[in-house]
Design brief:
four-stranded antiparallel sheet, 16 strands
Length: 173
């Protein structure tokens, strides 16, 4: 069976969605989402500044773009190209953003470890968790054994249980 190649696609980075149905390509402040089967353009999204991080939601229905130099993230829907969301953290800043296991909430970490923000996309609610012990990227491992879903497993200083129902965070007091 001979291999077939698409035309060259220029960009600074590219990632596949968790279900491998989509590929996103970043070029400055523009994000292009293509279907992997046909390599046809599905959406072209414009962000407010240069995109520093791109992450698909676990269910591959949303895509998060981080513009940390602007203290902002933008979220776009793959199913509905018109739907979009923007989260600005303001003075506290954003240095990291990640998806919750349900694909409908986002966790942001502020600069200097001041707070974590939990943002719900379904009802537009948010929750602030003050004084997290360590950042989401470089937290050392600890043992979490209070969750029935995560008994005797190792995790970072913050994280979701295997079943996705519980979130544990160590806070400074």
């Amino acid at each position: 069976m001979p291999c077939q190649f698409s035309e060259m696609v220029l960009g600074s980075s590219a990632i596949f969605s968790p279900d491998h149905r989509y590929i996103s390509v970043v070029s400055g402040s523009r994000l292009t989402v293509r279907e992997t089967d046909t390599v046809e353009i599905l959406h072209v999204f414009s962000c407010v500044d240069k995109i520093e991080k791109v992450v698909f939601s676990p269910d591959s229905q949303y895509i998060l773009c981080g513009m940390f130099s602007r203290n902002a993230i933008q979220i776009f829907s793959i199913a509905d190209g018109e739907w979009r969301c923007r989260i600005n953290e303001g003075v506290a800043g954003i240095i990291q953003a990640s998806w919750g296991p349900d694909s409908r909430c986002i966790i942001t970490e502020s600069d200097f470890g001041l707070q974590l923000g939990v943002w719900n996309l379904t009802d537009s609610s948010s929750l602030t968790i003050p004084s997290p012990k360590a950042n989401l990227k470089t937290s050392p491992s600890i043992l979490l054994d209070s969750s029935p879903c995560l008994a005797n497993k190792t995790s970072r200083l913050s994280g979701f249980s295997d079943c996705g129902r519980y979130f544990a965070i160590v806070q400074r007091i």
